[in-house]
Amino acid sequence: MTTTYEPARTRGRGRWAAVAVAVVVVGGLLALLWAAMTAHDIASRTGTWIVEVPVQVTPLLPQDAWDWGTTGSGVPLWSTDHGIVALVEQADRATAAFAGAAPWVARIVLGLAALLLVPVVRALVSGARLTVGHAWRVVGVGVVVAIGWVAAAGLPALAAARMIADPVHGLRSEWFEPRWSLPWWPLLIAVLLVVLGLSVRRGASLGAEAEGLV
Questions:
Q1: pLDDT tens for residues 121-132?
Q2: Which pairs from 190-195 meet CB under 8 Å and 24+ separation?
């Protein structure tokens, strides 16, 4: 009886695995396309879009700059929950894209993570045993998340540095410095993924050793 139904069950799992893989691949590619479209849309607003760049003030900033609500050069200065931002216009395409990096970087991370996990999804849905190769893919997703975490914080700071370096934007270098804002939770996700991947690797290695002893 088991022999009769096992091939049908295996074929069913294989079909479901193929569907799951197709969904993950299409989702990953769409996320990458969405990221490209978002970055292009942000960069295309050059000259007409007000760009928010994260800055921190130096002790040389006059107090009356806060009283006016501007930097004294016509550039609005705002205090948010995450720190101070300056609102400037006439940013070039690269600076505008860097300043709005968070959404498109997140979509790149999502797309790459989905594509990296395709073999893992196939194995889980089909009921196959996870291998060391699958484990390293989970670790790779953790690394991608960590890189995205740094990029999402570093690119806006780079945009601020570009704005400060160009006198036309009115952000005087003696008054302002670029500000890094690093939320902790993406790093926690990255660490958990790496730990999970290493645990899967350990389990796969032990399973392979046990099979070798049988």
A1: 999 998 888 898
A2: 190/142, 190/143, 190/145, 190/146, 190/149, 191/142, 192/142, 193/138, 193/139, 193/141, 193/142, 193/145, 194/139, 194/142, 194/143
Tokens of residue 5, six digits: 């139904």
Domain ranges of the chain: 13-213
For residues 196 and 194, give the distance between their C-alpha atoms in angstroms, rounded to a whole number.
5
User: Residue 199 has what DSSP assignment?
Assistant: H
72 token code pair: 């004294």
DSSP tag of 50: P
Within its chain, how far is the Cα of 83 from the centroid? 21
Indicate yes or no: pTM above 0.85: no
Percentage with pLDDT > 90 across the chain = 39
Are the beta carbons of 95 and 11 closer than 8 angstroms? no
Is 172 in contact with 75 (CB distance < 8 Å)? Answer: no
In 3D space, the residue among 91, 75, 49, 82 whose CA is nearest the CA of residue 152 turns out to be 82
